[in-house]
Specification:
It contains 17 helices and 4 strands. It is mostly helical and 377 residues long. Bound molecules: heme C (HEC) (2 copies).
């Protein structure tokens, strides 16, 4: 009997009215209570996690929900992610390679693209066609053969040239502009107009910009205009940042790293004898800062920049005070009043010093210039 009783109790714990059974009931009530509390806690926790994720994703503004961008969440030393430069809306896109290959002059266009991407193989110190440049490739600065948004792309070249440029004080066509980069950025000589190389480069640049209406400026073309700081850019701060973020590729002495074949650069130089000269666009710190903001260190893009605006300005100040080839600039900016705000060599039509034109602060310079042009109207 006892055996039976016991087995009844275990089988039907709620059925009996014995005191043992009521204790068990209490236990179970307690258990259910704890489970309820636990479930609430888990629920609240999940809610918090979802809200936090939504907040982070929103802050990055662009990540898809399925794959939160871990690189953004795990930026070095817990630094908060740096916001994208723009929204990507209507950004210019070059025609596809496929479209290019359907053109009557497809062969010329492909050669032009090759020359932009691998300039040094053809025209560098060990070039197969001529030895007329410092060994850099156009693509080192005009990323993805001049097609990358805010990567100094050629989107607006076909649509806006020929145009007046204050640096030369005259109307420039695409040939003249390309020659400028050969003579300044590549610190060398330009192939002649009519040569196979010059014609191919110009044909390629005109072709990829052919989907932009004449007179229009393509969105995200050229270099990003970085907002001015209220202070001057600081080369000392830039030096520290350079050591942390650039040195691994561009080296302590700024000379970069040559590729194994010795023809072109795996990591191009930022100063020294094989770098761009003092007449080059990048020698203006607004160009340099805008370029690196959207593209450096390698892997950064307009969507996921790795430098704050201030960091970009300070690094630009550091790199552009290092030694590099000079160029006779006596014929540049023939109208002094048209000299751009960050051209680092006088004379100037305004009262600001060479140092301020080189490092800023630029807001007062701009304001003075705007006031002048208003007076004229
Ligand atoms: C060291 C960097 C560098 C290299 C290398 C370089 N460029 Fe440039 N290029 C620039 C900068 C900076 C500008 C000015 C961009 C601006 O102010 O928006 C520029 C402007 C141009 C423009 C005018 C773009 C526009 O929208 O007005 C053309 C065309 C051009 N480069 C072609 C070339 C070609 C072709 C090569 C190779 C033979 C070359 N560049 C090599 C830095 C470089
Ligand atoms: C992981 C390697 C790497 C790091 C780090 C890096 N770069 Fe670059 N950089 C490159 C490569 C590669 C190119 C050429 C891109 C191409 O040809 O597509 C380049 C090109 C450049 C150029 C234009 C070409 C020239 O030599 O003038 C500048 C300016 C530049 N980098 C500045 C910087 C600065 C400033 C930093 C630090 C904030 C930096 N880079 C960090 C790899 C790197």
């Amino acid at each position: 009997m006892e055996d039976l009783n016991e087995s009844k109790q275990t089988q039907l714990p709620n059925a009996g009215s014995a005191s043992g059974s009521s204790e068990q009931q209490q236990h179970i009530h307690k258990l259910i209570g704890s489970i309820n509390v636990l479930m609430w806690l888990v629920g609240i926790l999940l809610f918090v996690v979802f809200v936090a994720m939504g907040y982070l994703l929103n802050n990055n503004g662009k990540s898809t929900v399925q794959s939160p961008d871990t690189t953004l969440l795990l930026t070095q030393e817990g630094a908060s992610a740096i916001p994208a430069i723009g929204d990507g809306k209507d950004y210019w896109q070059a025609p596809s390679e496929d479209e290019m290959s359907k053109q009557a002059n497809a062969e010329q266009l492909l050669y032009g693209k090759e020359l932009i991407a691998h300039t040094a193989n053809f025209l560098g110190p060990k070039g197969s066609v001529a030895q007329i440049t410092n060994g850099m490739n156009c693509q080192n600065c005009h990323l993805k053969a001049g097609t990358q948004p805010w990567g100094n792309n050629y989107g607006s070249v076909a649509s806006t040239y020929p145009k007046y440029r204050a640096r030369s004080g005259g109307i420039e066509d695409v040939y003249k502009r390309v020659s400028d980069c050969f003579e300044r950025s590549l610190n060398g000589k330009a192939p002649l107009k009519g040569s196979k190389e010059m014609e191919a480069i110009v044909a390629y640049i005109n072709f990829i910009g052919s989907n932009v209406r004449k007179g229009d400026k393509a969105k995200a073309s050229g270099i990003y205009e970085l907002p001015y700081m209220d202070r001057a850019a600081d080369p000392e701060k830039g030096k520290v940042l350079y050591a942390a973020k650039c040195i691994s590729c561009h080296q302590t002495d700024g000379s970069g790293v040559l590729a194994a074949d010795g023809k072109s650069y795996t990591f191009p130089p930022l100063w020294g004898k094989n770098s761009y000269n003092q007449g080059a666009g990048l020698y203006r710190i607004s160009r340099f800062a805008g370029y690196i903001k959207a593209n450096m260190p390698q892997g950064a893009t307009w969507e996921s920049p790795q430098l704050t605006d201030e960091e970009a300005w300070d690094i630009a100040a550091y790199v552009n005070q290092m030694p590099r080839p000079s160029k006779d600039l006596s014929k540049d900016w023939p109208k002094i009043a048209e000299k751009t705000f960050d051209h680092p060599f006088g004379p100037y039509a305004d009262g600001f010093s060479e140092t301020q034109h080189k490092f800023g602060p630029f807001k007062p310079i701009k304001a003075a210039k705007d006031a002048l042009t208003k007076d004229k109207k």
